[in-house]
Amino acid sequence: MADSRKVGVLGGGQLGRMLIEAANRLNIQVNVLDVAASPAKQISAHDGHIQGSFKDAASVKKLAQSSDVVTVEIEHVDTHMLEEVADQVTVEPSWKTLRMIKDKYAQKLYLKEHGVDVAESLDLEGKGVQALKEVGSSFGYPYMLKSKTEAYDGKGNYVVKSENDVDAAFEALGKRPLYAERWADFRMELAVMVVKTKDGVLTFPTVETVHEDSICKLTYAPPRNVSRAITEKAQDLAKKAIGAFEGKGVFGVEMFLLKDDKLLINEIAPRPHNSGHYTIEACPLSQYDAHLRAILDIPIPASALRLREPSIMLNILGGQSPDSHIQIANRALTLPNASIHLYGKGDARPGRKMGHITITAPTLAEAEAEIQPLVAFVDELKG
Ligand code: ATP
Ligand code: MG
Ligand code: MG
Description:
alpha+beta, five-stranded parallel β-sheet, 12 helices, globular, binds adenosine-5'-triphosphate, binds magnesium ion, decarboxylase, ATP binding
């Protein structure tokens, strides 16, 4: 046993599952709080899991009692429960950080106060259609209407293209706490996985992320046609942003690279992130290894976060048929450099994250050539 401490995780989805893959290699037990047979529990047989909702107070308490460190694989948790258990168990990152980040508008205000450039935002909570029109006059069109909370994979965003869209936008999101963002006319989206340890802040390499319908589709490491000066500037910005928060662990930092090479932060995730999946094959330590080590104060050599080989990650999103992800995985089996990850979620639904594939190769061009037919097949199944 490398470590007898037990890690408790709120949430048992694919991020929890990949965290367990890393923990298993170090003989570290991870207790998962989620429904039975969630993706994470499927690969971890011990009696320390807790069956229930990570939104239920009694279950969170039970998890805290049976773990040495509690962490999350999702930020949509009740941080008041975590605040309550924080005197019995270490919570990483801090509940204060989770509370600030889970509200995307509060997160942006906080970053701005700390001198970090973010997309310009206006509060719309409690306001009506008229206020949405006023945003249009102030920001111009298009602008992005966003829910402050419970947002993921673009569920919570609405592109307001003109004043004619305002009613439909309010119809779609009006029941949620809203804010508006000025449209970022970006050249590219970038992301950096940041690791906050007891000693400081480290970063993985900068990656390019490609979103389709507001869902991450592909990541490229390194980014295509971006200078080293910019990838380093992105790492510095990500470091500065995460340095402003309390607690340890991995954070995903999403950014817009504007046409004039200015960088703006889009949003932060206080946990391992889709844009860091590539690290499993492409770096000596993965984002999951790093998260586990950071929250347990296990050493992380900074150079272990380097890119060993260029890589491309393709998300396996559910298509039109319930077995679309299996068809994609089967196709990937014929590729010599493809690592296939399926998440154990059962039937696919359109747009649902069912797995991912990472290809690493000596050059990005070789990785691109190998993954291209697979990307075309994914597009075909999407219908
Ligand atoms: P995630 O699954 O990453 O948590 P989310 O639902 O929180 O996503 P955002 O990250 O806010 O959504 O937005 C999703 C995508 O929508 C972005 O990656 C980007 O492509 C686009 N987008 C978001 N905000 C803006 C903006 N202000 N201007 C232009 N495009 C934007
Ligand atoms: Mg988000
Ligand atoms: Mg996002």
